[in-house]
Amino acid sequence: MNEVFSSSVLKVEQPRRGPFAKSRYKVLDDAGVVLAIAAPTDDQGRAEMRGVFAGKSNLDARAVVLTTPDGAPVLIVDKQRGREYTEILDPEGDAFGSFVTERVGRRYVVYDGDGTLIGAVSVDVPRNNFEVTDTDGSRVAHVRKKWAGLATHLLTTADKYAVEIFDPVPEPLRTMAVMTAIVMDMNLHEAKEIT
């Protein structure tokens, strides 16, 4: 995984779309080169109806497939129903790691594919800053959600995240730190439809 996300500064952007278009992302390096694209899996038939019930979309189960720009699969982000568990799978469908809620919206623990604790994600009160630490409590990454303005926030799904990795960070924690932006967006920021 490290070859795709080798830059220590990355951007994760959710394209500007209407409130019903969710779970699409681009991962870019600091020069703006697209490294990966994430789109919903084919079994997301009810995704368009999710926005009908304002404020509830982040409770639905959904998954995105992360691919290179030429279509080679990289990872699958599989968010289970609710906010408790999001699994990261390799292209073959095997467990790569997981994010498990310890305190909703405030703290998540990170496991590798074998279920071994490898780190944690702490979230600030406005849910815009995410500190990724290893099991010793040392900071390995900082993910920041950028404010795009009120109209963009209310009327579109557009979100932008800056990811800074404090190298060297061993795998799989390094890749999981990058995935923090997508996982936290799917868990905390997709339910922003206007009621």
Task: Compile the SSE list and pairings.
Elements: E1 9-14, E2 25-29, E3 34-40, E4 62-67, E5 73-79, E6 85-89, E7 95-103, E8 107-112, E9 117-123, E10 129-134, E11 139-146, H1 150-155, E12 159-165, H2 173-189
Pfam families: Scramblase
GO molecular function, one term: phospholipid scramblase activity
InterPro entries: Scramblase, Tubby-like_C
Q: Which architecture does the CATH hierarchy give at level 2?
A: Beta Barrel
Rg over CA atoms, rounded to whole Å, is 15 Å
Biggest beta sheet summary: 12 strands, antiparallel, barrel
Percent range of helical residues:
10-25%
CATH topology: Porin
Average pLDDT taken over every residue: 82
Counted up, domains total 1
What is the 3D form? globular
- Total E-strand runs: 12
> N-to-C terminal Cα separation, in Å?
40 Å
CATH class: Mainly Beta
* Residues in β-strands, percent: 35-45%
Q: Could you give the order of strands across the largest sheet?
A: 1-2-3-4-5-6-7-8-9-10-11-12
What name goes with the CATH superfamily?
Answer: LURP1-related
What ranges have pLDDT less than 50 throughout 5 or more consecutive residues? Answer: 43-57, 151-156
- Give the helix tally: 2
Order of helices and strands: EEEEEEEEEEEHEH
Protein architecture, described:
The chain is mainly beta and 195 residues long. The protein has one domain: LURP1-related (Porin, Beta Barrel), CATH 2.40.160.200. The protein is built from 2 helices and 12 strands; from the N terminus they run E-E-E-E-E-E-E-E-E-E-E-H-E-H. A 12-stranded antiparallel barrel has the order 1-2-3-4-5-6-7-8-9-10-11-12. It is globular, with a radius of gyration of 15 Å. Residues 43-57 and 151-156 have low confidence and may be disordered.
